[in-house]
Amino acid sequence: MASSRQDYIAPWWTYWLHNFPHLNFNFQTVDNTFKPEDASYQQSLIFLACVSAVGLGLSLLVLSAYLTCLCCCRREEDEEVKRPDTCCVTWAAVITGLVICSAVGVGFYGNSETNDGVYQLTYSIYNANHTLGGIGSMVGNSLGSMQVGLKEHLERLDEIFSPRGDYTQILRFMQQMADNIIQQLTAMPDTRKVQVDLAAIADRTSFIEYYRWLTYLLLLILDLVICLIACLGLAKQSRWLLTVIMVCGVLTLIMSWASLGAGTATAVGTSDFCVSPDKFIANQTKDSLSADIVHYYLYCSQSLPNPFQQSLTIFQRSLTTMQIQVQGLLQFAVAVFPTAEKDLLGIQRILNSSEFNLHQLTALMDCRSLHKDYLEALLGVCYDGVEGLLYLCLFSLLAACAFCVLLCAVPRAWTLIAIRERDYDDIDEEDPFNPSRRITPYNPARAQVHSFCSYSSSMGSQTSLHPPLQATSRTNPCYLKEILAMKTSR
User: Which residues of 319-335 are buried (b: 16+ CB within 10 A; e: fewer)?
Assistant: First the structure.
């Protein structure tokens, strides 16, 4: 594990993002060292996030200019307009759909990578928190046993051994050893505050990551749905579907640029941390931990001395001395003072329990466990996490450009649909080549009128009669005969 510290090397993309210009609201250069509590550094990240607002403004400006030209610069209807060429709109829709689908695939991959990196970060933090909790528990148990349990047994034994000065001298020596142990345990850093801080950081990170992952997932699904609706609307030439596409497309365009800004700011801030994480952690822990302790766990080198080695050694020697003294009293004093056996056995149990805690404490306070969690956290957030954020930024950029093109193609498709409908309505109904002229309209009132004249006497019943010929200027002779017959009957 001596060379384990060299296993972490910040990836190249973190250096690339780290070199992004950091400007405050006054357009002044800011130090790119990761300092989230500094107001100027916060302004630099907000400035990077607002850069995407410029892209959104340009997209809306281009879209507005295109729509203005489409509405105000319409040409006179000619043969070319009446026979519009839909090739450009079709290819624009196809290419836009392919770009959106590709962007969604990139987005799904980036969202998964970021989630994996953050999960590894929080998992490592929880492991480190568990280690610190074990250290605090071992120190607390040993300290309580020495201050309370051992003291009670020694006080009772002092009363029992009061007739023998040599035995009481041994008890005072044991009390001195116990005080040494208490002093060493008290001098150890209180890990409970650090444990609470790590737990809060892990919980907050998990909470934010869940809603980040869910938001991107819904955005990816929304992009796919809009792409499908666009294909359906263009295929069916449905105006209301195209209207839905326009409204949802504008909203998605805004969300794409917003997600690009948020992703860029987050990636740059995380990269600033990944370039020099040791410096940031040392600054954050300087008030609660000494520099040699922080340096020991951050680098975990065999050349670095264990800052707790002296305390643990004194703890071990004091326990061994006390165990030897108790063993001697059990061997020689119990025969003279039988009532002392119970307290001596109680002290022996406390010493055995403290020795077990000492071994556990020695293992937990070794730098290898916490340093391993530290490296895994760095690898998770700086490799998978930042890489996933870059893919999400690429998704947002591709989606924003694709939806901008789609919003330009939809009004053109609307215009082509309107031209086709107008051309269909302009067909002359008197045109003999119009297919609708060949269809004889059905007149139910005429079907109930009986003819007074058979057009073909040999054709059977009246239901089989052929339709009358077109009216001419000549008067029908059958009609004249019927009029004369009516006058004669009068």
Answer: beebbebbeebbeebee
Render pLDDT for 12-55 as a digit per residue (tens, 0 to 9).
Answer: 999 999 999 999 988 899 999 999 999 999 999 999 999 999 99
pLDDT for the residue numbered 232 = 81
In the chain, DSSP finds a helix count (H) and a strand count (E) of 16, 0
How far is Cα 312 from Cα 318, in angstroms, rounded to an integer? Answer: 10
Domain count, the chain: 1
**Amino acid identity, residue 162?**
S
> Which whole-number Å values give the CA distances from 448 to 85, 90, 249, 463, in the listed order?
51, 53, 58, 11
Residues in the chain with pLDDT values less than 70: 1-7, 73-87, 89, 195, 238, 413-490
Does residue 447 lie in a domain region?
no
pLDDT score for 163: 87
Which residues constitute the domain of residue 293? 4-67+87-424
Which residues pair with residue 29 across a beta bridge? 23
For residue range 177-221, what is the model confidence (pLDDT) as tens digits? 999 999 999 888 877 777 678 888 999 999 999 999 999 999 999
Q: Which region holds residue 469: left if phi is over 0, alpha if psi is between -120 and 50, else beta?
A: beta
Q: Which of 370, 389, 63 is CA-nearest to residue 191?
A: 370
Domain-located, residue 450: no
User: Is 449 a member of any domain?
Assistant: no
**What's the pLDDT at 407?**
85
CA distance 272 to 261: 17
Read off the tokens for 101: 């689908």
Nearest to 400 by CA among 217, 228, 252: 252
Of 131, 188, 138, 198, nearest to 370 (Cα)? 131
Q: Tokens for 209?
A: 């990551």
Three-state DSSP state, 335: coil
Please, which residues have CB within 8 angstroms of residue 462's CB and are 6 or more apart in sequence? 450, 451, 454
Cα–Cα distances in angstroms (integers) from residue 370 to residues 132, 334, 377, 387, in the given order = 9, 46, 11, 25
432 falls within a domain: no
Q: H or E stretch including 46? A: helix 39-72
Show contacts of 201-208: CB within 8 Å, 24+ apart.
201/125, 202/122, 202/125, 202/126, 202/129, 205/118, 205/121, 205/122, 205/125, 206/118, 206/122
Q: Identify which of 109, 61, 118, 106 has the alpha carbon closest to the alpha carbon of residue 396.
A: 106
370: CB partners within 8 A, 6+ apart: 128, 131, 132, 297
CA pair distance 270, 275, nearest whole angstrom: 9
Alpha carbons 189 and 228: distance in angstroms, whole number: 60
How many whole angstroms separate alpha carbon 47 and alpha carbon 34? Answer: 15
Determine the 3-state secondary structure of 188 from DSSP.
coil
Is 467 buried (19+), middle (13-18) or exposed (0-12) by CB count in 10 A?
exposed
Residues ≥6 apart with Cβ < 8 Å to 366: 306
- C-alpha to C-alpha distance for 133 and 213, rounded to whole angstroms: 30
